[in-house]
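anyone else get weird line breaks when pasting these?? whatever heres mine. first is seq + tokens for prot A
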Amino acid sequence: MSDINRLLDEYGKLCDSAENARRLALWDRPERGIRAETQWHGVPRHAASSGALMPVTAECLEKMWVSVLGMDIRRFYTDPDYSLEYFLTYKMLKFRRFRDDTPLTRDIPVCFGVTHEAGMLGQKVLFMEGEEPQFGKDPIVDEDSVLPSRIDFSRNPYLVDMAIPFHRRVKSLAGSGFRVIFPHWYRGPQGVALYIRGFQNFAVDMYVNEDFARRLLRYVTDAGKQYAAWRAEFTGEALEPCDLFNDDIPLMSPDNYAEFFRELEQELIDFHGGCWYWHSCGDLTRHVPEVRRLRGISLIDFGVTMEDKAEGLKGMSADGVDGAAPESWPAVELRVMAKRHIQEASEEEQKEYVRSILRACRASRVERYVIRSSGMSILLGGERDLDSLARWVDLAREVQAEKDPG
């Protein structure tokens, strides 16, 4: 038996295990938990008012696996055999090492990181030693660029030369017992526009060249819809709810988010029949009421830089948002900064921060949420870092089980 076949067999047994069945039972529509990227984003099946503990999940940055497993990040993104081997390896390591609620599924995503959408539109992508895929430094559009109204993705060099062969190889290795996911378009209009125009350039455009900024946003929104339609035809799969990943929405004011981006995001949500996961880097606190006005979102990310989750959660019930009853609200993924609240914190400090999150959820009437450690990288030394994360999972559960955690 080859190493890949052995890993697939071992992984499949864990998928069929009693422990994995326990984890899967915690989630609503668990088949959607693995989608455009390798990390799990799930919606809890039960509400907190049911008395059930809310799920706890733990993730690491890929550089963790460089230290712990000796993984070569560049090969992970360029060599499909190697990518599959290490995807299976680190997923199984996490499953066995952390007693969290992240399940395994037979879904294997082909993902090229933040560069995927911009790469299809012609942005240079660099595969460098020890790093995730990076953008070339020069923007590819300016106010004089001719932005096509239609893109023929069947002839797209990025797809034809890299993504399609990569997917085909992983699919042939995995066999019929697994679903290998062809890359989704999962960046929102803001993120893609920033990447192909440049952060500073696009921010200035919004103020001094609004017509061009809107033309660029229309271009990337239409490109996302066209790609989704092409992908559905190419794979034979129906359109499904999208994801909307943004790169630091808080760089713009809440008013600018509402004026420039929100309606385009709603257009994509309507086109796909929903949005599974809405994400932005940065502290989203001031923007939550505007994001909540989007219709059709299943899960909203409250990221690690939103230190005071209570302030952000207040925006879930802001005046004018869709769905007045808490049971109709999207679920919230409450991400904890690993460095500050795990690796550099005492156990009591870790527990008190989780208590503060639980108090905030109760005060804001948020019924469905996930407590998640996110972004852990190397600080204490790979093995010690993983030990600290495993211990945090236990502490987060202990706090939820307290009779009066607040």
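and prot B, same format (seq, then tokens)
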Amino acid sequence: MNKLKTIKTEPIKIEPLIKDIISHRNSLSKEIAKVDGLIGNRITYIAEFVCNAFEQKLDCWYFSDAENFSEAVKGDRITLSMYAKNRTDYICNVILLKDGTEWQLDEIPLRWLTEDFEDEVVEGRLKYIKYLETKKQETKERLLKEKADKEKVLQEIKNKLTPEEFGLIKDKI
């Protein structure tokens, strides 16, 4: 039968904290709460402005997949879910940013906390609408060209066949 050996180790001694450390921590916590309040107010303004730009009325917003601002910051953006009154789904509008990047508004650029962003939202919405209209027109033109090309090929085939031969394959084309 093996006997368990008891290893005796001493914990590494940590010196007592200075008395002011607790009050210092509490004052820092209060300052952080004030800053978080300022950030929350700015985000509320941004969310309300975005909703208004898309002719919606903000009901509420929250950080997506995050408990607080620090967790919601993902690089150069803040993940955010916005809900509008009289809607059950969250708001997910798209704009083109001033650098031309397509931006889905389930996130907001972090820089909007410290910059005037209003013109970028309004102009970005208009740019995106124009982009979609251009894309729609290009698709329409491409489909018309494809149809014309197909009709041209069919006419060439028809010209090379007798009416009887064309009649046999007409339904299969």
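btw re prot B: The two ends are 89 Å apart (CA to CA). Strands lie at 58-63, 73-74, 77-84, 90-91, 94-96, 102-104, 107-109.
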